[in-house]
Design goal:
globular, about 150 residues, alpha/beta, Protein-Tyrosine Phosphatase, Chain A
Amino acid sequence: MPDLATIGYEGCTIDTVLATLRDAHVGLLIDVRAVAQSRKPGFSKRQLAASLDEAGIAYVHLQGLGTPKPGRDAVRAGHPERMEAIFREHMTSDRAQAELAQAKGLAREKSACLLCFERDHNTCHRRLVAEMIVAETGQSVVHLAASLM
């Protein structure tokens, strides 16, 4: 079974992220942002999906695996521990559990990578999503880091 990767695009360009994904042989990018929009060029949902398609990488947005607004606000305020509690509570919802099951299935089938904004996986909810997936799949997790601009 392939490793499960994660990546954050903070401080990166779409080109450096795509190169990192290609180098890691990622076949599927799982977007785990609650809001798949970005002020960073190339990272809004449609643009990102098109760039990934050109690179031969599949794309799926699992919005239910995103952090609710209070959790995102906690990270911005420098309190990732608050985000973690908010996110874990969010993950008890039916939608989040359904999308987590979907992510587990996808991660078993293809070399997948979870995408969110924060560069440091330790302060991002994608680390928690990865832990929830591998608790069942037994995969190893690799945290990718694209080159900074």
